[in-house]
Amino acid sequence: MLKFLGMKFNTKAIHGGQSLDPAYNAVMPPIYQTSTYAQTTPGGHKGYEYSRSKNPTRNALENAFASLENGKYGLAFGSGMAAIDAILKLLKPGDEVVSTADLYGGSYRLFTQIYQHFGIKFHFIDMANASNVAKYINTNTKLVWVETPTNPMLNIIDIKQIASITKKHKVLLVVDNTFATPYLQQPLQLGADIIMHSATKYLGGHSDVVMGALIVNDDTLAEQLYFIQKASGAICGPQDSFLVLRGIKTLHVRMQRHCENGKAVAEFLANHPKIEQVYWPGFSSHPNHQIAKSQMRDFGGMLSFSTKGNNYNESIKIVEKLKLFTLAESLGGVESLSGHPASMTHASIPKAEREKIGIVDSLIRLSVGIEDIDDLIEDLTQAIG
C-alpha cells in the first residue's frame, strides 16, 4: 500500500491508501462481486471469508477514506444513516448525548424516534459558543455530536474548542463532516474522535450512490465499530464502493469549483432586492466566520437563503421555476440542486423546533454544482424575478 501521510491532499485523493490489485496489477481496484471466498483451510484466505465482514473493493475504499482524513481506520456503510446508527450502537440505556440543535433532519429523527425509545437521552443545544457544551455534560454523557457547517443554516462550530471540553470529560466527539468534506476540513486533526460522512454527497459526487463513512484513529474504537459493522450488516456493496472510489479521485478539483461557484451565488443573492438573508460562512458578517477561516480551507458550495418577508409562497415559486437547480433531495453532486428544508430534508423536525433554529418556511437550500457560473446566475435571476 502507498504511504499517504506525507502526500499532499490532491495526491492522496488519487493514490492515498491504494495499492495495485495483486491478481493482475489493475490500476483501479476491481469490483469483487462475490458473496464468499474459497478457503484452503478453515478460517479464511488472506482474511476474506464472507463479504459482509470483508470485501477487497470495500477495503480499498475504506483505506481511501482513512487517507483523506489522515485517520488510521475507515469504515464504509450502506448509507450515512447506517454509519450514524453504528455510532449510536456504542451507547447503552441511560447514556446521554449532547448534539447541536441545528442538524440534518434524518439525524434528528434517528436520535429522537428510535434511540430515545431505547433509553438514550439527547440534549439539542446551541453550539455557536462552544463553552455552552460543558453545561450539559454530566456523568452519563458519553458522546457529543457536531455538524459544522450545519445543515441547513450553515452555522459554524469550533471543533478544537469542543474537543478540549470532551477530552477533559472523557466523552467521545463525533463530527459530521459531510458539508465540508476532508478537502476543506479535517476534524481528527482538530481533536475529534470519529468523523462521519454521508458519502452519498461530495465524496461520491455524482448523485448515483448511497453510502456512509466513518473514520477513526483509536484502535479500540475502531475494533468496536468494525464489530458493529460486521454484526449489524449495514455494509455497502462492491459496485457502490467502486463508484465512490472513482468519485474521490476528483474530489479536490470538484470542491475547488463548488467553492468558487458557491461564493459567486452567495454574493449574487446577498445583493438581490427580493432576498431577505443569505446563510453562507464566507461572509465576514456570518456568525463564527473567523472560526470557519481558521478550521476550513474554503467555505464550500452549500448555502441557504430566505425571501423578503419570509414569504412561503414566493419561495415555493422560486424552487419550482428553477431549471438548472434541480428541485431534489440530497446535495454534493456535480449538478446544482435546490431544496425546501421545511418540507423536505427537515420535515421530521417539529415546526416549532425548526423555527427556533432558523428553518423558517421560506428558507431555500442550494447545493451549488460545478456548471458554468453565468448559467447558474441566469437561472436564479429568472426564477427569483
Task: Tell me about this structure.
It is built from 13 helices and twelve strands. The protein is of the alpha/beta class. α6 links the parallel β5 and β6. The mean pLDDT is 95.
List the helices and strands and how they pair.
Layout: H1 9-15, H2 56-68, E1 73-77, H3 80-88, E2 96-100, H4 105-113, E3 121-125, E4 141-147, H5 159-169, E5 172-176, H6 181-184, E6 194-198, E7 212-216, H7 219-232, H8 238-248, H9 251-270, E8 275-279, H10 289-295, E9 302-307, H11 312-321, E10 326-327, E11 337-339, H12 351-356, E12 364-367, H13 373-384
Parallel strand pairs: 2-3, 2-4, 4-5, 5-6, 10-11
Antiparallel strand pairs: 1-7, 6-7, 8-9, 9-12, 11-12
Mean pLDDT over the residues: 95
- State the shape: globular
Give a short account of the largest sheet.
7 strands, mixed
Q: Tell me the series of helices and strands, N- to C-terminal.
A: HHEHEHEEHEHEEHHHEHEHEEHEH
Total E-strand runs? 12
How many distinct folded domains? 2
Secondary-structure content class: alpha/beta
Q: Would you state the CATH class of the largest domain?
A: Alpha Beta
Q: At the third CATH level, what is the topology name of the largest domain?
A: Aspartate Aminotransferase, domain 2
